[in-house]
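Input:
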Amino acid sequence: MQTEELIRTLTSDCAPVRPLAHPGWRAAAWFAISLGYVAAVVAAIGLRPDISSKLADLKFLLEVGAAFLTSMMAAAAAFCAGCPGRPVWERFAPVPFLALWLASLGQGCWREWLAAGAAGLAIRPDLVCFPIIVAIGIIPGLLIFIMIRRGAPIAPFSTMGLAALAAAALGAAALRLLHTEDASIMVLVWQFGSVALLTGLEALFGRFFLRWPTLQEALAADRRVAR
Amino acid sequence: MSDRADTKARRDREEHWRAHLRSAQDGDGRAYAQLLSELLPMLRRIVTHKWPNAPDIEDVVQEVLVSLHTVRHTYDPNRPFMPWFMTITTRRIADAARRRYARSTNETTVDVMPETFSGDETKTEQETSDDQEALRKVMSTLPDGQRQAIDLLKIQGLSLQEASQITGKSVASLKVAVHRAIKAMRDALERKT
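Output:
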């Protein structure tokens, strides 16, 4: 096909398209829906028995708050990564909150090391964390996946990684409200580790899930819009 | 003065394309066709510049146009046009180059397609005649016993027992003679090629 003919094909019967909303609004919409879902799951399972004392603990609030903010900022960054022409620094928006989350866990590990020595940093198997984070994060994960597919696949690895971080961090934050595990080293290894693993794994599949459509796929999509 | 004029021209062009893309998002096919037609020469220059050894520049240009079309809803009318356009173009060219490279690693480029040596139907008459001549020449250099063994067993197609009766040699010595003759012929042919 000649290029001029291709232009005629693409522009004839050109259906109106709705421009994507600002990434901030899309992130806010995703976070609000996901937060509602997570709140319902937490209410259904039941909060941890010591929640009232934990809510008075500044370290706990800082840690959970940083996880929620990481989730929200990662979602905003994932939506920015699908909008061509936006500055690259926006993709690093969750980094300060991720660092704060990691720092609060690191500070907890340091305190436990000072209090109990090597015994304070003992790692025991806690295999429920990973499946619970996946179970809580799967619906927000699917929702954000559908939403990022509306964007352009200009940075597939970082877009998928950030989307996975958003969903997994939300799952990990919810887990802190359910699961009575407060040893920082355990939270670091099993909960933060699960988030890191899920983020890395999903980022690897970025190019598989987010790819440029072929001409046939583009024309088929146009026909669907026109109908 | 000229710099200022250039800047103004660039700004006007940017505004012109922004307006056309906004109209395209609203479903104005004529504005959209004009936008893509105006972008086409620049797109060809960018593809040639970014990927000078592209096997088919026009194919890549078309892939970029299809990509611009499929993600035209990602353009925010409140943001500049050129960064949006350049990001898609450069990413799409890189993606096309990566895919072509990945495909080429599984392909072997040859000037002449390889042919089987054993099937006569794949050869010209001249090649068949050349092969027979080469074999005859190599056979003539073999010792008498080996040449006779090849002649009886491989050319006339006799059994080992029949050849043994004709030559008066044992079956085992005929087998050894054929083995050594074939090895000598193979070595001689390889030396020739």
